Amino acid sequence: MLSSRTTQGMVVAPHFAAAEAGRAVLAEGGNAVEAAIAVAATIAVVYPHMNSIGGDGFWLIHRPGQPVVAIDACGRAAAKADLALYAGLQSVPWRGPLAANTVAGAISGWAKAREIAPGTLPLSRLLAEAIAYARDGVSVTAGGAALAAAKSAELRGQPGAYAQIFEPEGKPLTEGDRLRQPALARTLERLAQDGLDSFYRGELALDLVSDLAALGSPVSAHDLSAHRAEQTEPLSVSVKGATLFNHQPPTQGIASLLILALADRLDLDADSSFAHLHGLVEATKQAFLWRDAHCGDPDFMEADPRALLADATALEAMAGKINPARALPWPQPSQQGDTVWFGAADRDGMVVSMIQSTYFEFGSGLVLPKTGITWQNRGASFRLAEKGWNALKPGRKPFHTLNPALAHFEDGRVMAYGTMGGEGQPQTQAAVFSRYGWQGTDLARAIAAPRWLLGRTWGEDSTSLKIEEGFDEALYASLRAAGHVVERVGANNAMMGHAGAIVMGRDSSGKDWFEGASDPRCDGRAAGL
């Protein structure tokens, strides 16, 4: 189901098999973190074009009566990933061995989450569905098949096992074909047996670095063994009726919070009105200008996003730059990326918002032969510069478009929400939250209704204001008249992201309820108990 309402728990994911894997864990008494790990493992198998255990991840965890906890599972640049390695190049390549220049942090995030919220189920149970789908195969979705076909030319020639796994008969798998990943199944079985830490400091780690070295990646055994996921304090900001939470840098969580903090100071009027859409787009521009000037590895940032969000005067001044009738000239440089967001909530009131990614579709294109793991290319976002914003340095974290979102409403509701879509992530979050949180739109409708995208996202290079079909005809004309470069796109367009949300609340009798909704733009499901 794309939407569901229950009283015992909820999982939402952009692939139905992953959602059902999480639901099964909840049904067996697992907590929301355990359900999220089951989802994370399963979706890495069944949606390999969008994420992998060879990528990074970020978590927000709500526990009743405790502060919201964030987990930063972002891998750092390899010790050998310095400017000398890229001599003669103008930028880090998007694909290939030199793009695979950072540690994959996702698995360490799973481990940290289990430390923070220990459950009762063994790791072997949490990975069971993922192992089965990798071993026995999974049916390729229409979206996965289309993407694999579109990217085949640039991926099939990459060193490693990409062609063997994803083009076993010399051509991309098509919709309905069976994708089998036996090496990845064995890797997941090893993790279940040896523990998640073996990815970084065990025999599995030795196999990883052996393959990485053979394929030409700079990531070494030392880089893996030095990696740790970090428990951090999330960024937060108060808006009308709620407190919003998101991840601190190196993610663009600050942009997601800024858009809504600025929009809260505008008259947005009704959903789908000119004032609503124009206001959120212009708030997006202001947020992106700040993000692109300052955001990166927090250890190297000069600006403080936490201080900005706490400074009402600064936020008022930023909102004051927005003309309610005219568009700020655009474009600015854009970010992109491929990602999955998913959420879980359990009967004890724990709520998880989590995001996992390889950056581009199929990451660097390097699939490690011994383990079947697709390695990310997140480090391709580094700038080949001596200093400044997101400059490549050994041990530095790359800038991330990833950002999971969470909201605490004043009436006690808790909302976990998010999407894939690179630059579109904070915009989609703003659309979903403003509709549901401020305008009272039904959760499923808030996600399914037509959306917009300023700039570039998954599969797109243009920086126009893309707007789905389905809005009132007069709105498109009004936006053009205000100076927006409007590009109309088809309804339910995947470029708008694969959004999802879970809301937990309590009825008048004191009984908890859970509502979930998944985007019709993906293959997802809201799976409740």
Name some characteristics of this structure.
single chain; alpha+beta
Write the layout of secondary structure elements.
Elements: E1 3-6, E2 9-13, H1 16-27, H2 32-46, E3 56-62, E4 69-73, H3 106-116, H4 123-126, H5 128-136, E5 138-139, H6 142-155, H7 162-166, E6 178-179, H8 182-194, H9 198-201, H10 203-215, H11 221-226, E7 230-232, E8 235-239, E9 242-246, H12 253-263, H13 274-294, H14 305-310, H15 312-320, E10 338-346, E11 351-359, E12 405-409, E13 414-418, H16 424-438, H17 443-448, E14 452-454, E15 465-468, H18 473-481, E16 486-489, E17 500-506, E18 512-518, E19 525-528
Parallel strand pairs: 15-16
Antiparallel strand pairs: 1-18, 2-10, 2-19, 3-4, 3-11, 4-7, 5-6, 8-9, 9-12, 10-11, 12-13, 13-17, 14-15, 17-18
Helix pairs in contact: 1-2, 2-5, 5-8, 12-13, 12-15, 12-16
Structure, described:
With 529 residues, this protein is of the alpha+beta class. Helix content is 35%, strand content 18%. It contains 18 helices and 19 strands. Helix 18 links the parallel strand 15 (465-468) and strand 16. The longest helix has 21 residues, at 274-294. It is globular.
